[in-house]
Amino acid sequence: MKRLLIVHHTTSPTLQAMYEAVRAGASTDEIEGVEVVARPALAATAVDVLQADCYLLGTPVNIGYMSGALKHFFDQIYYPCLEATAGRPYAAYLHGNNDATGAVRAIEAITTGLRWRRARPPLVITGEPGKPDLDECWELGAMVAAELAS
Questions:
Q1: Which of 103, 130, 136, 137 is an S-S bond match for 66, by CB 3.0 to 4.6 Å?
Q2: Helix (H) or strand (E) holding 38
Q3: 108-114: average pLDDT
Q4: Which pLDDT value is given to residue 98?
Q5: What structural domains and CATH numbers belong to the chain?
Q6: Quick check: 9 and 69 in contact, CB under 8 A?
């Protein structure tokens, strides 16, 4: 069975709603053969990363950058996972009140260094998410899990 690891920093009701939608999409009954595992960014370990086949990263945008928790996650897993996880797919979802360009750029720089492969463009939601935004989160989770299952 393939394993999808969701690493998230869920600091607000908005990010909680996004996380729940992503996880629900990834866990939909229509997708078979994928185990979904979720870890808060401050608790995720190199072992979690090594045991997963694909990664979904969730973060708030803080002052134009990813959260310190997600950066800490990358700092902890970078060297232990560098060789073993090269080529694995990832996707990301971000929430901010305005521009997320710096956060997206930082995630892409680190995942490029890890030699991970972007499975989907980053999903960036600014402001209060509505139902269409949460539907996009659900779709992101479902698409990533479906690709992993195939």
A1: 103
A2: strand 34-40
A3: 98
A4: 87
A5: 2-149 (3.40.50.360)
A6: yes
Residue with tokens 């959260």: 67
pLDDT in tens, 20-42: 999 999 999 999 999 999 999 99
**C-beta separation of 144 from 56 below 8 A:** yes
Could you tell me the pTM of the whole model?
A: 0.96
- CA dist 81 and 148 (Å) reads 19
For range 116-128, the mean pLDDT: 96
Q: How far apart are CA 18 and CA 24, in angstroms?
A: 10
Handedness of CA 80, 23, 98, 115 (dihedral sign): positive
Angle between helices 101-114 and 68-81 (to 10 degrees): 10
